[in-house]
Give the backbone structure.
Amino acid sequence: MDIEICAVSGYEEVGKNMTAVRINDEVIILDMGIDVSILAQQESEEGNIRVLSTQQLIDLGAVPDDNKISEWKSKVKAIVLGHCHLDHISSVQFLAAKYKCQIIGSPYTIEVLRESLHDEKVMLPNKLTKVELDSKIKISNNITVELIRVTHSTMQCAIIALHTPDGVLLYGNDFKFDNNPILGPKTNYQRLKELGDSGKVLSLITESMYAHRPGHTPDEAVAKEMLSKVLLENNFEDKAIFVTMFSSHITRITTAIELGRKIKRKIVILGRSMGKYIESAERAHIAHITEKVQLCKFGNERKNMLREIEANRGKYLVICTGGQGEPGSILDKIVNKALPFNFKDHDAVIFSCSTIPQPINMANRERLEKILLANKVQIFTNIHVSGHGSHDDIKEFITMVKPKHVIPSQGERFKLDIVVKMCEDMGYKFNKTVHIIKNGERLKID
């Protein structure tokens, strides 16, 4: 068969993931993400991005430039989404309508996408198709899509397998190998090993975000222990406690709820973004959260709740957005007096997240911390473990599935080079069986 991979976007940076795979005269698109840092900077400087055209967003670098596959447009048979993070699904609203095909994802991914489209008032002609993890959907006589369960930092994530008569192409953006997940099952190692032992894996696209970090990424249970230590071993009597994390990290949210209840706090979750992911998780039957908390998504209910917390700060634990210091988040609005709550001496803000290593995020987070420290707030940072595989996880992945070709993605050039060196040590040959491809470039798979 004639197989060609086009690295539309996400092969020279972190985020904005989009790949197209042509198999004879049929094309499958893998992910349609956005550049979160450019989006944040644009909204910070210019306001609402909804006033911009799709081409303007492409020119800004926020949305993948799918003009690179314009001649494949009529050949696209499906858009397959690996999971629900913004850098994997958030360009669907801008790009998907031009492709006359279905959009496929796990039940949770599709629920989040559907809710996001509703929030943005976007009506797509594309059918949204839910496929259970560890199952397949036939696209045509020559292509079957399989979603293989993998752990990450949100729920129902998949390694995408494209089955063809000549073999299997694997797409592994993003993953970690958590052998003790707190919520949901662990990675389907058995299936990955089956594919590797079959000798049919033609290619593997793997993330390289943390290829430079030695060893394995710690399990989520480590983050739970870190958060437990902060909440259970400090005296926060009569002090406000705010815990911030990525809105999509359902496992971490459930951990914060469990620990908050242990210290006899009522749990309040603030923010529309948090609400979107939580309610999607409930519709996908992943977790039952709203029955255990007070969820305040919108203006007046958030303001009224914060007035209550202000008056009775020792009774509540607040879970909210703002870990990146991003404009418009709950923490940002509080410190800028857009919401009716005032931090006082020795109140606590726990950052159960990392800072995305982009200049705009780092500047926003630094500004937020300065304001909190000026108010004598106790700050606890990096109460977190990553959802991305480190050096030895990537090596384990490659060893497990035994691909004929390896293509690193999702990382700056030095990280891609680390994966290349790793592969060379395993017997792969640069430009023959391990490849670096830039955004817009294509690679034939034989």
